[in-house]
């Protein structure tokens, strides 16, 4: 399989549930990202991992917990979410070529999350 | 804080027309600018990436330009087709590793 894959594609969960989103990239990249896309709002960058180290965290609530065990896999652990967290969660990857230089980002198909 | 604006928010054109989508950003200290296409309910597909040192990039019927000093980029689509119908997103990467997206332009090309 090539590109960036995400599972599950759709997820419905209650506010007390714990679930995880998974992302996998097969492009040999060394940086991975989580984005949130809510209705009628621009994409929001949540987390950036480069070389498996978190380099960016845009003040995301602690009920979202990222994990990057290696350069090919990225997880987003979810617990005690709120209905307003319902959104499309997109994963992306790219190649980091310098201290602050990242190349073209490639996106996965996203996970459509609904919190009841 | 970098802000990215895309105009128009929506555009409807007949098939065959040439069209221009606009993107503006407030902080000219960027590393690159990327144009994406998003189909309904799907992820993003990268169209063109322009590094801050470049003025334009071309791919097929698409041409993107960058004027960093004025904080503007345009995406030119030649001879539009119904299959071009999608939302087009502009994103800029800034010095602090941040990637900021515009709200997108929803394009409809009518047969």
* Sheet/helix structural class of chain B: mainly beta
Radius of gyration of chain A: 14 Å
Average predicted local confidence, pLDDT of chain B: 94
Low-confidence stretches of chain A: none
Unreliable spans of chain B: none
Ends apart, CA distance between termini of chain A: 33 Å
Number of helices of chain A: 0
Largest sheet of chain B: 6 strands, mixed
Helix content, binned percent of chain B: under 10%
Mind summarizing the main beta sheet of chain A?
Answer: 7 strands, mixed
Say how many strands of chain B there are: 11
Round the Cα radius of gyration of chain B to an integer and report it. 13 Å
Our count of helices of chain B gives: 0
**Binned strand content of chain A:** over 45%
Overall form of chain B = globular
What gap, in angstroms, lies between the N and C termini of chain B? 41 Å
Percentage of β-strand residues of chain B: over 45%
The chain-level structural class of chain A is mainly beta
Largest interface, by Cβ-Cβ below 8 angstroms: which chains and how many residues each? Answer: A-B, 28 and 25 residues
What is the molecular shape of chain A? globular
Overview of the molecule:
Chain A is mainly β and 116 residues long. Chain A has strands at 4-7, 10-13, 18-25, 31-37, 44-50, 53-57, 64-70, 73-79, 87-94, 96-98, 101-102, 106-107, 111-115. In chain A, the strands form three sheets. In chain A, strands 2, 4, 5, 6, 9, 12 and 13 form a seven-stranded mixed beta sheet that branches. Chain A has a four-stranded antiparallel beta sheet with strand order 1-3-8-7, with no helix packed on it. The N and C termini of chain A lie far apart (33 Å). With 111 residues, chain B is mostly beta strands. Chain B contains no helices and eleven strands. Chain B has strands spanning 4-7, 10-14, 19-25, 30-38, 44-51, 56-59, 62-67, 72-77, 86-94, 99-101, 105-110. In chain B, strands 2, 4, 5, 9, 10 and 11 form a six-stranded mixed beta sheet that branches. A five-stranded antiparallel beta sheet of chain B has the order 1-3-8-7-6, with no helix packed on it. The mean pLDDT of chain B is 94. The A-B interface holds A 4, 6, 33, 40-45, 48, 55-56, 58, 88, 90, 92, 100-110, 112 and B 4, 31-32, 34, 36, 41-46, 49, 89, 91, 93, 95-104.
